[in-house]
Automatic annotation (TrEMBL):
<dbReference type="GO" id="GO:0003677">
    <property type="term" value="F:DNA binding"/>
</dbReference>
<feature type="active site" description="O-(5'-phospho-DNA)-tyrosine intermediate">
    <location>
        <position position="122"/>
    </location>
</feature>
<dbReference type="GO" id="GO:0005737">
    <property type="term" value="C:cytoplasm"/>
</dbReference>
<dbReference type="InterPro" id="IPR035516">
    <property type="entry name" value="Gyrase/topoIV_suA_C"/>
</dbReference>
<dbReference type="GO" id="GO:0005694">
    <property type="term" value="C:chromosome"/>
</dbReference>
<dbReference type="InterPro" id="IPR006691">
    <property type="entry name" value="GyrA/parC_rep"/>
</dbReference>
<feature type="domain" description="Topo IIA-type catalytic">
    <location>
        <begin position="34"/>
        <end position="497"/>
    </location>
</feature>
<keyword id="KW-0547">Nucleotide-binding</keyword>
<dbReference type="Pfam" id="PF03989">
    <property type="entry name" value="DNA_gyraseA_C"/>
</dbReference>
<dbReference type="GO" id="GO:0006265">
    <property type="term" value="P:DNA topological change"/>
</dbReference>
<feature type="short sequence motif" description="GyrA-box">
    <location>
        <begin position="524"/>
        <end position="530"/>
    </location>
</feature>
<keyword id="KW-0067">ATP-binding</keyword>
<keyword id="KW-0238">DNA-binding</keyword>
<keyword id="KW-0799">Topoisomerase</keyword>
<dbReference type="InterPro" id="IPR013760">
    <property type="entry name" value="Topo_IIA-like_dom_sf"/>
</dbReference>
<keyword id="KW-0963">Cytoplasm</keyword>
<keyword id="KW-0413">Isomerase</keyword>
Amino acid sequence: MYTDKEKLIPTNITEIMSTAYIDYSMSVIVSRALPDARDGLKPVQRRILYAMLREGLLRSRSFDKCAGVVGEVLKNYHPHGDSSVYDTLVRLAQKWVMRYPLIDPQGNFGSLDGDPPAAYRYTECRLERIAEELLRGIDEDTVDFAPNYKESTTEPKVLPAALPHLLMNGSTGIAVGMTTNIPPHNLGELIEATCLLIDEPTATIDQIMKVLPGPDFPGGGMINGTKGIESYMRTGRGIVRMRGTAHSEQLKNGKEQIVITEIPYNVNRANLVLKIAELISDKVIPGVSDLRDESDENTRIVVELKRGEIPRVTMNKLFRHTPLESSFGVILLALDDSRPKQMNIKEMLNCYIEHRREVILRRTRFQLRKALDRAHILEGYKIALDNLDDFVKIIRSSQNRDEARTKLMAKYPLTERQTNAILELRLYQLTGLEREKIEAEYIELMKLIAYLEEILGSEARLLEVIKGELRETAEKYIDDRRTKISPEEGEFRMEDVIANEGCIITVSHHGFIKRTSVSSYRSQKRGGKGVIGAGQHDDDFVEHLFTASTHDFIMFFTNRGRVFVEKVYEIPEGTRISKGRSLANVLEISKDEHISSMICVKDFDEALHLVMCTRKGVVKKTNLKEYRNYRKGGLIGINIDDDDQLVNVKLTKGENELVIITHAGMSIRFKETDLRDQGRATRGVKGVTLKKDNDYVETIEVVDENAALLICGENGQGKRTNFDEYRLQSRGGSGIIAIKTEGVAGALSVHEDDEIMMFTKNGQAVRSPVKDIRVIGRTTQGVRCINLGEKDKLVGISRIVQVDADEA
């Protein structure tokens, strides 16, 4: 199809979109987001430094407006928005971002708190001396130049880079389908690693790591563990765990305070303070009386503790719950010969060595050409000075310059270039002193030419030059390592600083949990028994109790089959009379979830098992060790059908017997060995067959020959029956009658001295000792346990936990 001014070609839009997107992707990858492995710079960074060099903004000169730099870059080199240029310029000057800043700033260039820099019309800048090292030799034919976007001038494709900038300052970039995240390193260590590879090209990663142990972040701090470092050194990928630096100080009033002086790389200081304040407000980090940010150019965040608080415990809660401990995901990805490539540390250093080799070779050839050209001129001067009278005579007798040049070239072995240089000599250069200068210059030039030819003729000599220049340059900028590296692997363990002491965990019927030190019970007056955890609401009581060590684990199972694991010391501490904290604030459970069961264990012993039972009669056995790698957000303990839910979980030894009680009053007793061990995220097998459509499982209990099974019906009648009344069957059957009733309200394994609480539909709660309920046969209706009003019914029973002060 043709029109008057254009030609239209029908094309498939899929092909156009595919081609256009690939072109765009390659443009982002090569010309915007990824650094070059040779000089470690992205195109916009390189253009800024080159534009500042051409503007004369060297360290020895005065500052100039950033607006001028941005305008120069946009005008000649970077056809994009001014914000991208100025943001890059600012980043190159921020000392908390760059381990070795390339730009010397003057004015407001932002802060570690995330404050934005002032507009570029207010700020000024010039190159740092270390940036001049990256540009040194750029006019000596060391690198290739390419036309700029409008072909009005040229720009360098890469900088000579007298220092390994990519690893020295690191780089971050997100391209299309790939990303790079390179941490900064200490320059002195980098130079030693580079020289090691020059001397021993077959050096291993282990040898390199002896001189280059890992990243060195500008803000200091500490790296926790070397596993992530070793990973990225070997493969180009790894996760480095960073921590801030903090210490405790004693105050005059007897209190102590934690002072944070260094924070992890790329952490916003103001956001860190807000996060700490939020955790203090939510009582996640208790025991803090004041929080102050006293930072100026240096970080100083003060966390003042209440009297008697242990600083180390609070400090490590800060590590656990705030960005004071963060991760840096290392990806060593850069452009190698204009192609993105993920490299290990050795490959990256070799890229730089090869670049410097090419730069030194090109510079040496350039200097040799220049020296030979000058020597050629000086040789002509020497011929002229040795025959000075004759030269003067020939020149005086000539009619013009061309005739003089022709006569001189005819009589003496001179080139046209030499002859022109002789004819341009000034008279004072014919004096004896000037003749000596020419002789001395010529001798020095011969030495220089020999030296340059030696470099070009010997690979070993060339590598010696690279090493020598690296060490000489680095001596000006080498400083001490700021980031300490701790060899310990893994996360900090809170139990390392928390005493392993006895405590009592109580959970109330309404879902309030607390941890109470055993010592708080011993300090009470000696005497009779009392319900643990006074301080609940009038209709609340302690339903679960665990005597545990602070280093033990508590497992919480929800009705949807999820499992949460918490260390006992993570449970909020309370007094004997305090209410405790709601479980919803301790665990990350959703609104439609509630806790079905809790189990306390010392460790994840593979000799122990968990048996779970659902409302639909599905049972599953899983080895306890499967829950060893728990997460804060919970694990899948059992796969639950949409119309089902978990009712109870029991801890077993692998050879126990179990009994399931259903709402219709049926029961089935079977051996635990009938169940095979299954993984966490599995459904389980049939434990009981429910004959009635409206029947469902009330609970599952472990058979205890020293206890009895208490069952209460909705009609308020109940009984205790010895476990031997329930004969052993195979798993999966419909079972036998446990109680004759219209519906079971609840069942518990109880002892003679236990007490229970019974709940009715109308909100009545009656407390009763178990011994008042008779032990009778399995198929009986039982005795009256509670007097019910009209249209009221029993809906549940729970055990009341109590403890003697001395027993605690």
